[in-house]
Structures are given as C-alpha cells and as structure tokens.
C-alpha cells in the first residue's frame, strides 16, 4: 500500500500549498517518483492532468471565499495565483459559469471540486489477467511525436495521431513491417524529459529501418503483460485504471521507468471480442 500512500502524500502536499507556486518537480518528489511517471499515474487514476486538478481546486476555494467573505475579488485572484483580475475572471467563469461578482450575488450555481482521496479497490469478481515474461532488448520502428503534459496536450494529441496513422496508411505499413515477437502495431509511451513525452506508433522489427521511419531500442526488461478484451478505446482505458488502482498497489512490483507498450493485433478494434495487451516494465 506504500504506493498509494505516496500518491496521496503528493496530493496532500498540493492541497497544503495551493496558495503558493507549485512545481511538478517538488510535487513528484513527495511521491518518490519522477515527474513523468507521477503525471502519467495521476492522469490514469483521475482522468485529469495535475495542472487541471490544481486549477480546479484553486477556483473552488476562490469561489468559497468570494461567497462567504467580504474579501476583494482582486485579492482573491492574487491569492490563488492569477496575475490580473481579467485572467481570474475568465478562468472563474469557465469553471463556474458566472463571473466572480455574479457569484458574490448568488447568481447561478457554482461548480465545486473536492480534494482527492486515493483508495485501493480490491475486486475478486473480475481479476486482472496477466503473465510475467523477460526479454532481451529489441528494436521498434515507427513514427513519433512529442507531447507536453501541460493542459492535457497528450490526451488531445495522441488520438489525433492515431487517426492520422490509420488514414494515411502508416498503421498498415507497420503491420507489414512487423517481423518481431510482438505481433501487432504498438503504442509506445516514453519519457523524453520531466515535462514531455515521446509517443510512438510502431512495430517490433529485426533488421533494416524502412525509409521514412525512425527506430528505438527497447531495453531488456521484466514485463508484466496484461490482457485487454473488448472494443477500443474503452477496454484499454478500463484496464489501465485497474492496473494503477488495483494491481500495482498490491503486487509488490515497481515500474521500471522505461517505455510502456500497448499492443494492437490485427483485427477489428471496435469489436467486443477484440484482444489487445498492455506491457509494463517492472522491477
């Protein structure tokens, strides 16, 4: 359960410092995690970026102060990190649907977000199915793009990247180029630095790299391979949540910090019988 406690410690740190400048480096340090993996874990568990959670909580507390005290709106704006009343008013209206001055007059309903509490969910009815394998280093070839975690850029950009790959024939080409042990097209998530990630649409390949494609070596690892059964993208998202909310907290394993793989075999990804996999490197 130490893993869950570490995540909660970082959330509690955020809550205790909402009126201060918060950096991802310091937040992730509370969880004994890299910035990259903390942000990724947080997003999988909550469907929110860390930045979005902080923004929502600040605007929630700001709304409470505006509606329950006589503090000046400009003072509340500065208190919660907004440089100008205009920026604060715009953000406030986006969340609450009314301006700060309207909120003070009790016009409209406000949208409050409570602080997060991470809990382990133990389920026996639908166990997560997986097996553990070890592999030497292998090569993937494909296309990649760099995404930032800021404002959920990766959540918006990665689905568009898949749409492009399916429309322009990249996915079909990668299926044909695949001659490695992992059969299918891969979605590969790899950290480039503490605030950005490379996302690859790729295939395992031995030998030459076709023109127009890049290559990446996946390091030797112990892998936990999780079964995913069902239509995309819901089935994949469901298993990711189960891994981080149920499996990791009780497994005794730690993430190795190297790239993760989503494996999409040939077939109809929208079929309720579609089979795919998640590969996570562990220690």
UniProtKB/TrEMBL annotation:
Signal peptide: none annotated. SMART domains: AraC_E_bind, HTH_ARAC. PANTHER family: RIGHT ORIGIN-BINDING PROTEIN. Keywords: DNA-binding, Transcription, Transcription regulation. Residues 8-106 form the HTH araC/xylS-type domain. The keyword Transcription regulation applies. It comes from Bacillus suaedaesalsae. It comes from the Bacteria. This is AraC family transcriptional regulator.
């Amino acid at each position: 359960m130490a893993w869950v406690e570490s995540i909660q410690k970082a959330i509690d740190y955020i809550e205790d410092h909402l009126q201060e400048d918060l950096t991802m480096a310091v937040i992730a340090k509370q969880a004994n995690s890299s910035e990259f993996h903390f942000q990724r874990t947080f997003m999988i568990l909550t469907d929110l970026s860390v930045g979005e959670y902080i923004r929502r909580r600040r605007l929630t507390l700001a709304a409470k102060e505006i509606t329950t005290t006589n503090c000046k709106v400009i003072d509340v704006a500065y208190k919660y990190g907004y440089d100008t009343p205009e920026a604060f008013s715009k953000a406030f209206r986006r969340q609450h649907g009314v301006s700060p001055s309207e909120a003070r007059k009790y016009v409209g309903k406000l949208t409050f977000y409570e602080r997060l509490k991470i809990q382990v969910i133990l389920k026996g009815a639908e166990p997560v199915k997986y097996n553990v394998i070890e592999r030497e280093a292998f090569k993937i070839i494909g296309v990649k793009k760099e995404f930032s975690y800021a404002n959920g850029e990766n959540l918006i950009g990665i689905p568009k990247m898949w749409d492009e790959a399916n429309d322009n024939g990249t996915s079909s080409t990668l299926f044909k180029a695949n001659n490695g042990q992992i059969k299918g097209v891969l979605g590969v998530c790899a950290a480039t630095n503490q605030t950005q990630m490379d996302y690859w649409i790729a295939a395992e390949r031995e030998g030459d790299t076709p023109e127009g494609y890049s290559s990446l070596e996946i390091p030797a690892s112990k892998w936990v391979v999780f079964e995913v059964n069902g239509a995309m993208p819901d089935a994949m998202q469901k298993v990711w949540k189960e891994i981080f909310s149920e499996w990791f907290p009780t497994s005794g394993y730690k993430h190795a910090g190297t790239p993760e793989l989503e494996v999409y075999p040939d077939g109809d990804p929208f079929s309720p019988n579609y089979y795919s996999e998640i590969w996570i490197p562990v220690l």
